[in-house]
Design brief:
- The complex is a heterodimer of chains A (246) and B (270).
- In chain A, 7% of the residues lie in helices and 38% in strands.
- Chain A is built from 1 helix and 12 strands; from the N terminus they run H-E-E-E-E-E-E-E-E-E-E-E-E.
- In chain A, a hairpin with a 5-residue loop joins strand 4 and strand 5 (92-101).
- Chain A has a single domain (19-228), classed as Sandwich (Immunoglobulin-like).
- In chain A, the strands form 2 sheets. Chain A has a 6-stranded antiparallel beta sheet with strand order 1-7-10-5-4-3, with no helix packed on it.
- With 270 residues, chain B is mainly beta.
- Chain B has one domain (29-47, 57-263).
- In chain B, 8% of the residues lie in helices and 34% in strands.
- The termini of chain B are far apart.
- The chains are: A mainly beta (246), B mainly beta (270).
- The A-B interface holds A 70, 72-73, 105-108, 121, 201-204, 206, 214-224, 233-235 and B 81, 83-85, 125, 127-131, 188, 191-194, 241-242, 255-256, 258-262.
Chain lengths: 246, 270
């Protein structure tokens, strides 16, 4: 009897470890770039999920803004962007964002704007841990990883690693052509190191709509967003690794 | 004529023969409504000099180039915003044909319209992928399907008649050594996965406009690209949304990008 209890407890903890709630380490090396969170949108799956903003203790909100998402001169939604700073370790920040979309027509197809990925830049040598908070969204974070490539932008099973980006795979749409719709994404969060603080970069956030049979139909929109200072220009990287310590 | 000119003309002629496109014809070309090729050759890269006459319209002004007896019906300009950045200006015009400043009310020119499009672009970064400036590889716009369409382009006026590659005046702007390469009924431009696929609801002009082109030859002005049709039901009143598509096809590895803009178009029903 006692051994059965121990086995049951072991299985329980094992399962919990495999699907741990809260922030996941995105790492900086290896081909396993995208980490699955809740690809089937199952309420029982807690991996990557936190229950409040920003989902880590001892952080204080230091920045908050919103900006319209405009494509083809049509406002298709709003980006909400926040940044928190650690109270005692001031180089640590959490950058969080979510979108709320509308059903305005923005191209000749008449379909509403679909968001498949939300991405932002990071300092490539700093650690990155990611999570999400549903906050009313009916669709969980699907996956997250350090890459600049979103849905249908790569041919292999995993996208190419690019530690200057963190990409969150979501599914936000005010009027899905089929299936259920969630106009809002969850809050998608990344905890990282930013010794030089942060800025609002004019192209700080990438919003990707790429679920098309013709890959050339993919659309991305860049909007201003918070970004750690010290992010290198595109295609520029250095090797000054800062370790994985949070 | 230099040997290089002969070689390029021979190559162009061979390509045209292979594609079943008539060799250089003067001015307007009638683009195909069925079969292949969808795109007609104008002056494909590598550019041929002297400029082939196919699609090429000439004159001191746009109305003269598309004339005779062209009359401006409507005109508009609009800022092109990409990711909130002002990357240039789109010019959109419609001309009819008539006499005494009045569009024809009968005869072959009745409800015959030329829609004209050009862009003037600015240098500078406009997205988070690179610091490259905005490039337009294809100017694509809605037309009426099932109606014969003539297509052409006008580079701008000669220098003696105000032509300038640096001016900001759309009537004097001269496209800098970037001729229209192809034209045809499709909405899929350079390097699109469906490039060259027929869509008779659209007319495409392949034209490499970029104020800071990585290829080393920058032209902030596109040519004025024009398409002429008889619109049985006349014109829509005012500009219609999503009528003009500006396509960046990544000629120098830039990202694919579509910008839809409002534009004039024919009615498709009474």
């Amino acid at each position: 009897m006692k051994s059965r209890w121990i086995l049951s407890l072991g299985l329980l903890f094992g399962a919990a470890a495999a699907h741990a709630a809260g922030y996941v380490n995105l790492g900086k090396t290896g081909e396993d770039v995208l980490k699955e969170c809740n690809p089937d949108n199952s309420p029982s799956v807690a991996k990557c999920r936190v229950q409040s903003l920003p989902g880590s203790n001892n952080y204080t909100l230091v920045g908050s803004r919103s900006t319209p998402i405009v494509k083809n001169d049509v406002t298709v939604g709003t980006l909400y962007d926040k940044v928190w700073r650690h109270k005692t370790r001031p180089n640590r920040y959490v950058f969080g964002m979510k979108v709320t979309m509308n059903s305005n027509q923005w191209d000749p197809t008449g379909l509403s704007f679909n968001v498949n990925d939300l991405a932002r830049r990071l300092r490539p040598n700093a650690f990155a841990r990611a999570a999400y908070y549903l906050d009313g969204s009916s669709k969980a974070l699907i996956a997250v990883g350090r890459t600049g490539l979103g849905l249908n932008e790569y041919d292999e099973e995993q996208p190419e690693r690019d530690n200057t980006w963190v990409d969150f795979r979501v599914d936000a749409n005010a009027a899905e052509p089929s299936g259920s719709s969630s106009a809002s994404s969850p809050w998608v969060l990344v905890r990282t190191r930013a010794p030089a603080g942060y800025e609002v970069h004019p192209f700080g956030v990438r919003i990707l709509n790429s679920d098309f049979p013709n890959p050339s139909s993919s659309v991305d929109v860049f909007v201003p967003g918070f970004q750690p200072n010290g992010v290198p220009p595109p295609d520029d990287d250095d090797d000054d690794d800062e370790g994985d310590e949070d | 004529m230099k040997l290089g000119h002969w070689k390029s003309m021979l190559v162009s002629g061979a390509v045209a023969a292979l594609c079943g496109v008539p060799a250089a014809q003067a001015g307007w070309v009638t683009v195909s409504d069925s079969g292949t090729p969808v795109l007609s050759n104008c002056n494909p890269k590598p550019f041929t000099t002297p400029t082939p006459s196919a699609c090429l319209l000439t004159g001191n002004t746009l109305p003269i180039a598309i004339g005779p007896n062209a009359i401006l019906v409507s005109s508009n300009s609009a800022t092109i915003f990409a990711n909130g950045v002002d990357v240039g200006t789109l010019y959109d015009r419609v001309y009819c044909y008539g006499t005494g400043g009045v569009c024809a009310t009968s005869g072959t020119n009745f409800r015959k319209y030329t829609i004209a499009t050009r862009v003037q672009l600015k240098p500078g970064a406009w997205n988070g992928h690179s610091n490259e400036s905005f490039e337009v590889n294809d100017l694509i716009r809605r037309i009426v399907s099932g109606v014969t369409t003539e297509s052409g382009y006008w580079m701008g006026p000669p220098a003696a008649a105000c032509g300038s590659t640096t001016t900001t005046d759309p009537d004097c702007g001269l496209a800098n050594m970037k001729w229209v390469e192809y034209t045809g009924k499709t909405q899929y431009g350079l390097n699109d996965a469906l490039v060259g696929t027929r869509d008779n609801n659209y007319i495409d002009h392949r034209n490499d406009a970029n104020a800071d082109d990585p290829d080393g030859v920058s032209s902030k002005w596109s040519a004025w690209v024009v398409a002429r049709q008889t619109c049985s039901f006349g014109l829509e009143s005012g500009q219609m949304a999503f009528s003009i598509k500006l396509w960046e096809g990544g000629e120098e590895s830039q990202d694919h990008y579509t910008q839809w803009m409002s534009g004039y178009r024919c009615k498709t029903s009474p």
